[in-house]
Specification:
Blueprint: H1 2-7, H2 10-17, E1 24-27, H3 32-39, H4 77-89, E2 94-97, H5 120-129, H6 131-139, E3 163-167, E4 181-182, E5 185-186
Antiparallel strand pairs: 1-3, 2-3, 4-5
Family: Belongs to the CDC123 family.
Pfam families: D123
Protein name: D123-domain-containing protein
Length: 188
Amino acid sequence: TAQQILNCSFSSWYPKFASATLKSKVIRPLPEEFVAYLNADGVFLPLDRYGRSYLWADGDGEDESGEDEDSSIPHFPELQTQIDDAIEELGGAVFPKLNWSSPKDASWIAVEGTLKCRTAADIFLLLKSSDFIAHDLSHAFEDCIAPVESQAALPARPEAFELVLRKWYALVPSMEFRCFVRDGEMVG
């Protein structure tokens, strides 16, 4: 059900298990303009928090093509400030994810080939390049079945999206595991 999906959202379980997992910061809700940016076609970076393009080659206000910056390029200064502050608070490097998924399918685009992010631009590039993130944004409840007794339609998306920044550790994927807890007992 949609409620089961919502129960797996990071903010639903993290407060209960914060002492047993990686230190994390949650930025919630994500601005709708940022969600629209993530959903937009193509892979491109927004302006930095100061309104500058990440493509500036010489700092003169022009991009590499020599043209003035396009005013249609998205700009999220408040979000970028929150991200920068969280990265600093978490030791200078983080692992990003949204409510449910990480952009692990996009690690190929990162400089180090990992999900290690040191800047907001690193995070934006991974999120924008990920099919897993695109699924969470547009199809999170797609395979849910409404309870028979319910007359309500399934939600198209959660009420709010969240950006989760987790302190970076170089974990060995073969040593990772998931556990499931029901009524305070580990069930699997």
